[in-house]
Amino acid sequence: MLSITRIMVGLCYLQHGMQKHFQFPPTRTPSPDFLSLIWFAGTVEVVCGTLLVLGLFARPAAFIAAGEVACAFWIAHWPRSFYPVVNSGTLVVVYCFTFLYFVFAGPGPISLDQLIFGRRDKDNVTPSLASQVE
């Protein structure tokens, strides 16, 4: 379920960048000026969204994406109101905490990270100092 959630959230996040840079899905908003703040946001959304969908470097991509949406909240939503439901920032908050979850939980079993780098088994972890004292 972790992998499916990562893929679906990554696809939804990717759409925001695709709209900004490629006007797909179609939008009335024009493409942002090159090197503007919105342009950088769209670039992060496309790159990190793609990495999250693939599950490749998922933890760093999720960390960067969490930072991007946190900045988006403070820059674009917070000045309108303290409450996310009033300032239209609810989705941004949900993205931020979901991405932070992926940072700590990892990409899940269905991912390129799993395929390329493998999974750390709990049996192979060095025992803690407390268990060695016995």
Overview of this protein structure:
The chain is mainly α and 134 residues long. It has one domain. The chain has helices spanning 2-22, 37-54, 58-77, 84-87, 90-105, 112-117, 129-132. Helix 1 packs antiparallel against helix 2, helix 1 (2-22) packs across helix 5 (90-105) and helix 3 packs antiparallel against helix 5. The radius of gyration is 18 Å and the shape is globular.
Show the helix and strand layout.
Layout: H1 2-22, H2 37-54, H3 58-77, H4 84-87, H5 90-105, H6 112-117, H7 129-132
Q: How many domains in all?
A: 1
End-to-end gap: 38 Å
Biggest sheet statistics: none
Helix content: 55-70%
Output the helix-strand order.
HHHHHHH
Structure characteristics:
134 residues, mainly alpha, 7 helices, 0% strand, globular
Task: Give a quick precis of the structure.
Helices cover 66% and strands 0% of the residues.
